[in-house]
């Protein structure tokens, strides 16, 4: 604590005078605890010293990390340069291997496209082979349409049973996944077909052979062609 000593002389003052003296601020005195200022200065110096040491340690850490990163980057660059130098003689064989791989891939894709395009021809060949062994006195094939995934047939037979047996034999051809008869009617003498269902005697019918399940877009295109196409 700080205190002040002051001395005054004279008789005791009156109460009014004491009040006036108490209202005047005291401006004199001296410090009784001078060591506190010294301690405050020492504490400020100690804090500044600690801050300086912390800043130096942080800067040293940053420099250490930066140096280690530079050293690691230099080592990686040296390794990469050594690997590139070792692979330089292999550049030509690797380029040739990549070229051959691309050529082989293109050849496989071309073979797949050729097989896909040739599949309908193979189906047609199998169908013609089977039709060549069919007797012509009971079934007469008038026309057919070959597509990639199906074959449409228009034929005349001596009866319903002969039509069913003929269609069953065609359904056993290699690659056929389904055979169905879509329309069965009695032929007319004028070359047209009667709308009445056939019960007995010669009949004319439409049949369809399925060679696989086409994609959705092919189905839509086939339906549109079937509605507006000509046989």
Task: Note the total helix count.
Answer: 5
What is the CATH C level class of the domain at 119-228, in words?
A: Alpha Beta
How do the SSEs run, as a string of H and E?
Answer: HHHEEHEEEH
Give the proportion of residues in helices: 55-70%
Can you characterise this structure?
With 231 residues, the chain is α+β, with helices and mostly antiparallel strands. Among the domains are: 30-59; 119-228, Gyrase A, domain 2 (2-Layer Sandwich). Helix content is 56%, strand content 17%. It contains five helices and five strands. The longest helix is centred in the first third of the chain and has 53 residues, at 35-87. The N and C termini lie far apart (122 Å).
For this entry, give a set of tags.
single chain, Gyrase A, domain 2, five-stranded antiparallel beta sheet, 5 helices, 231 residues, 56% helix, disordered N terminus
Secondary-structure blueprint:
Blueprint: H1 15-23, H2 35-87, H3 91-132, E1 139-146, E2 150-157, H4 160-171, E3 178-187, E4 193-197, E5 203-210, H5 216-228
Antiparallel strand pairs: 1-2, 2-5, 3-4, 3-5
